[in-house]
Amino acid sequence: MATLERGEASSLRSECLITRRGPHGDEALEFEAGISRLPGGWTLMALRDLSGEKRRRVLERCFLHDAINAAGAVQGLAGLAADGIPLEAGLIGGATEALVEELRHQQVLFAAESGELHPHREAVDTVALCREVAALYASHPAALDRSIAVELNPVSARADRVLLRRVIVNLVKNACEAVPVGASVTIACGAQDGRAVIAVRNPGEMPDAIRLQLFRRSFSTKAAQGRGIGTWSVKLLTERYLDGTVVCTVGGGETVFTVSLPLA
Fold first, then answer.
1. Could you tell me what percentage of the chain is helix, strand and coil, using 3-state DSSP and rounding each to the nearest 5?
2. Would you kindly state where each structural domain of the chain is located, as residue ranges?
3. What is the reported pTM?
4. CA 220-223-225 angle, 5° bins
5. Which of 9, 87, 197, 234 has the most CB atoms around it within 10 Å of its CB?
6. Coil, helix or strand at residue 49
7. Which position has the higher pLDDT, 49 or 6?
8. CA distance 169 to 100
9. Which of 31-35, 205-209, 214-218 comes out lowest in average pLDDT?
10. With contact defined as beta carbons under 8 Å apart, do 31 and 49 qualify?
11. Closest Cα partner for 97 from 183, 165, 198?
12. Which fold has domain 52-261?
């Protein structure tokens, strides 16, 4: 606007991000804004909603990136096996399961984005769920040379089990990618303040500058363009379809993502 006021240009065009508080939490809206100076001292501003287009691009890039990575791991291990190189038991099976997990997650996410996802809420045994995710990551490529620990206190949550599993799998994957080789990621569950909670902890405190932007759709701690859908999808599924909340806290040398859900 200052450029227009100084007479340096008759029109400007730029993209802008607007955050609004919706019925399911904060929503990020992305627009292309055009501003023009008209005769008589009038100023015309037009907005074009880019949210759907941006979502589609991010989803497509994320899907291709993750699916290619998972398929590449399967291909590499199969090649080693074909060359007669001995592999750790279950390694190929784990890589194959990781590929299937990526495809299933993207299927759920596309349905959530289009409003076609219909959750089936039931009593979910969080101990069994956490053990299941820990077992999956025992041989997952993202957890290579890292360990998964569990701290389990029995509690049942009212949630869609498939969607809740997606959320926890995503958080564990992000945690594994955030820690160095040899580190441990912890999955914990229990009751707190009349709610069922599942927490994923990893060593290292996330800087505030990153933590405060985590749940934006297009934000990522990774350098590759088009990433940044992991924590955003966690927030989308948890708040819109699980009647829950997800927060990220730091302290004591750790970063913790906590999902809070209604008790069953």
1. 40, 30, 30
2. 2-49, 52-261
3. 0.67
4. 75
5. 234
6. strand
7. 49
8. 13
9. 214-218
10. yes
11. 165
12. Heat Shock Protein 90 (3.30.565)
**Beta-carbon contacts of residue 85 (< 8 Å; ≥ 6 apart):** none
* CB proximity list for 238: less than 8 A, separation 6 or greater: 167, 244, 245, 246, 259
Dig out the tokens for 169 from the structure. 């799998």
**Closest CA relative to residue 164, chosen from 201, 130, 213:** 130
Residues across the chain: 264
Q: DSSP labels for 175-214?
A: HHHHS-TT-EEEEEEEEETTEEEEEEEEESPPPHHHHTTT
Asked if residue 137 lies in contact with residue 176, where contact means CB atoms within 8 angstroms, the answer is yes
Q: Of 50-54, 165-169, 233-237, give the range with the top mean pLDDT.
A: 165-169
| Residue 247 in tokens | 């927060």
Q: What percent of the chain has pLDDT over 70?
A: 78
What does the pLDDT read at residue 96? 81
